[in-house]
């Protein structure tokens, strides 16, 4: 792998929608800068630099106040780039780490000190070589009590994921709703299966995110996504958080306009009350609970 890729829009539009004061982009990443924070030798994609300066400029452009930076797979289990993003944010970012399950308790404490509030288990074979459930469970038990676990999987393995998810000893957040086929509509098989998962535990949350990934064939303005996801946000409004997914890893062939991504918010959360929960109250509970 030698060629570095750009997966983000160079000049995103200004959204029509204005997020409420204190709105949090609770799913985004930083890439590098590579000279300071090299990518993992196991990385499945090699991006151009998308560092904190670009992320914070986008935050301001889109009308957001804070970020939650999720460690991206291209940085493996070395969280230095994500910790750097948090450190230079002036208190306006926190993060989700990816760890080697053999991590020591002292190292977990250092991650907390650096602003991490959760860890991510990634089950996408195109992104990671292995996902050892037994080792993940062991480290999950050693996390601080107020941390949560972010999991990323695709709808075709939801059934086999159920026992593992049921055993997780912390609040769970499912990335991109476990990537349902949104073209099936709000009552399709994938959405039904995901609702069953949400109903199995009151502390399973989700991100109604990535219209660009989940409705790629139809494309912007991603109408299938809006139709399938709005009822889920309405029915589980205390259990969802939202993010841009910038810099949109692996989306170099269908780069979304971030302004349009933000304009999806009022389509899936049509009232001010829902928007407040999705963008402020819910993510504050996970990432800045001491301010509530
Ligand atoms: O940004 C996302 O959430 C989704 C990703 C990238 C990713 O998860 C990672 O690199 O860790 C994807 O589907 O390629």
Folded structure, characterized:
This protein has 292 residues and is of the alpha/beta class. 35% of the residues lie in helices and 12% in strands. Helix 2 (80-87) links the parallel strand 2 and strand 3 (93-97). The longest helix is centred in the last third of the chain and has 16 residues, at 272-287. It is globular, with a radius of gyration of 18 Å. Residues 24-287 form the Amidohydrolase-related domain. Residues 1-21 are annotated as: Disordered. It catalyses: 2-oxo-2H-pyran-4,6-dicarboxylate + H2O = (1E)-4-oxobut-1-ene-1,2,4-tricarboxylate + H(+). Belongs to the metallo-dependent hydrolases superfamily. PDC hydrolase family.
* Mean pLDDT reading: 98
The tally of helices reads: 11
Helix content: 25-40%
Strand order across the largest sheet:
1-2-3-4-5-6-7
Bound molecules: (1E)-4-oxobut-1-ene-1,2,4-tricarboxylic acid
Order of helices and strands: EHEHEHEHEHEHEHHHHH
Write the CATH fold name: TIM Barrel
Distance between the termini: 45 Å
* Rg calculated over all Cα atoms: 18 Å
Q: What share of the residues does DSSP label as strand, in percent? A: 5-15%
Look at the structure and give the CATH class.
Answer: Alpha Beta
The assembly state of the depicted protein chains is single chain
Largest sheet: 7 strands, parallel
**Based on helices, strands and strand pairing, what is the structural class?**
alpha/beta
In total, how many beta strands?
7
Poorly predicted ranges: none
CATH architecture term: Alpha-Beta Barrel
CATH superfamily: Metal-dependent hydrolases
Shape descriptor: globular
Work out the count of structural domains: 1
